[in-house]
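Private note to self, pasted from the team thread so I don't lose it. Backbone tokens:
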């Protein structure tokens, strides 16, 4: 342990007996001076938002617990009959590729101890970090579930369009590739909120009524992320309004930009999956909120139709598009309880299979 004096780290090796323990060895380990200074600065509470983060972590945990309790009440299911909750949490920062591997991190808030306490159900959470410290990106994690749930007889692709879009290429139950394609709804939603003061462009109506600025599109699609091969993952830390503004002169019509952003999402998805394979006899199936964006689905359909590739949603495969990701983390929780791997190293870049998640016991 390390105390509030931040002098260093005390480590003790002990043998635990029936009535007492025996100290076998001990070691005092000094912090590197730079790290000690950083920890001390954070601990003072000056010029940082640590208190806000920690308090919000608890509040989000209460919200997740309320969601679980409301679900059980709606279903008429007793908490005692539920084996576990799998909680992904709310990602607030994803930083998988700094120059130094030791600086990689990913942070999801929604305190799992709070969830377990408020629901009375063991909670499995923190799924990404074990992959990340094994030199992986910590994302995407859904491909393993996609292979379990959506295996077919031939090649098919599962596309999740949430804030970020990600793809899983399947050949039967084998994952050929998996990666984040780029922005899904995150730029569309942010631009809509900025100009229409609503949270999202319902059915893609705004983007559908405007024309694409192909010059702007070429600039956007030229971002180095789109040129990277997998494993790769990204988030709103990269694709945000500041990123978009760096390509704008300020004179663009907002509706034109919205249409261009929709085309960017569709183009980046199709380019990514067709780069890996244009032999997709079983088709492409979309899940996530983007599956209900009519304009976005039309754009995808037009691009895939040129290759005679069928487009559908995971509704066609027996699981409603809106609920695939939540189901994925229930499945990952079950993998953790069985001590089975939850990652696919070829997808995340991890050194090998890893059991993902930590278990927080209910009272």
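Design output:
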């Amino acid at each position: 342990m390390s105390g509030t004096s931040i002098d260093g780290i005390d480590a003790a090796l002990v043998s635990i007996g029936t009535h007492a323990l025996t100290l076998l060895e001990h070691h005092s380990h000094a912090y590197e001076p730079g790290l000690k200074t950083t920890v001390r600065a954070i601990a003072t509470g000056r010029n940082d938002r640590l208190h806000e983060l920690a308090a919000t972590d608890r509040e989000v945990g209460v919200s997740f617990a309320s969601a679980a309790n409301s679900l059980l009440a709606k279903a008429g299911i007793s908490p005692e009959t539920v084996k576990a909750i799998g909680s992904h949490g709310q990602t607030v920062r994803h930083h998988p590729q700094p120059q130094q591997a030791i600086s990689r991190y990913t942070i999801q808030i929604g305190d799992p101890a709070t969830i377990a306490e408020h629901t009375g159900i063991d909670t499995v959470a923190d799924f990404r970090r074990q992959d990340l410290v094994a030199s992986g990106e910590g994302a995407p994690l859904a491909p393993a579930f996609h292979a379990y749930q959506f295996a077919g007889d031939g090649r098919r692709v599962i596309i999740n369009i949430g804030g970020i879009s990600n793809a899983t290429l399947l050949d039967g139950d084998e994952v050929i590739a998996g990666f984040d394609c780029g922005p899904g709804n995150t730029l569309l939603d942010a631009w809509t909120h900025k100009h229409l003061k609503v949270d999202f462009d319902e059915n893609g109506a705004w983007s559908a009524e405007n024309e694409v600025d192909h010059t702007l599109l070429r600039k956007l699609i030229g971002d180095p992320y789109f040129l990277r091969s997998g494993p790769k993952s990204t988030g709103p830390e990269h694709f945000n309004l500041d990123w978009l503004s760096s390509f704008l002169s300020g004179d663009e019509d907002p509706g034109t930009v919205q249409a261009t952003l929709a085309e960017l999402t569709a183009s980046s998805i199709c380019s990514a999956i067709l780069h890996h394979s244009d032999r997709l006899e079983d088709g492409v199936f979309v899940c996530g909120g983007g599956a209900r964006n009519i304009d976005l689905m039309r754009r995808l359909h037009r691009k895939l139709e040129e290759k005679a590739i069928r487009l559908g949603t995971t509704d066609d495969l027996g699981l409603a598009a809106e609920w695939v990701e939540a189901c994925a983390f229930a499945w990952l929780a079950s993998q953790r309880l069985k001590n089975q791997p939850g990652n696919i190293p070829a997808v995340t870049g991890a050194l090998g299979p890893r059991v993902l998640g930590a278990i927080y016991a209910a009272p």
